[in-house]
Structures are given as structure tokens and as C-alpha cells.
Design goal:
single chain; about 110 residues; mainly alpha
Amino acid sequence: MILELGKALSFLLSIVSIYWLAVSAFFVPGSRWEERLALALLKLAIAGCVCFCSGLLFCWPLRRGRKRTRLTATLPVQLFFWAASGIAVLFVGTWYLTDLAQQAYPYVTDEPS
């Protein structure tokens, strides 16, 4: 019973840590991408620790005769891998589009032709 509650709470904590990572990677107004990258990498490490600790609870067998599950096959660890790869792709995409918009700025005018 306590193990099941611990699994649920740790999974909720891993979702919150991944959410915290995504918000800090994209929604910090007035910051440059270098600052967001450094902060996102720090929060990525923290979210990874939380998700892997939650994964350890998920691979703990409930009964003696059952075989243990691999750590990378647990739901919190797979969620972390998918979220981290998705956030990385989106971060690189926004970085590229921001740089492209800054390069095109001199050619874009507000004056009507």
C-alpha cells in the first residue's frame, strides 16, 4: 500500500519536474538563449534525478517471486527520455528560427510599398 502511494507521488513529482524544465526552457521573458540553455541544462539534470529515483520505485517488485523490471523500461524514465528529446528538438528549432528572424530584420520594413 505504501509502495503504491510512493509510486504515485513520485510519478507526480517527475511530471512536475519535467513541466518545470519545459517552462524554464521556453517561457522566460527577457532572457537570452544562452541563459535559458544553462538554466534548462541544470533543470534537466534535476528532472533526470527525480525521474530515475521514481523509476527505481517502479522497478521494485511487489512480490518475492516476480522478476524485476529494467530501470529504462519504467514509465517515469521513458517519460523523461521522450520529454527531454522533445524539449531539445523544440529548443534547437526556436534557436534557429530566432536567429533567422534576427538576420532577416533589416530586410523587413513596416512602410507600405
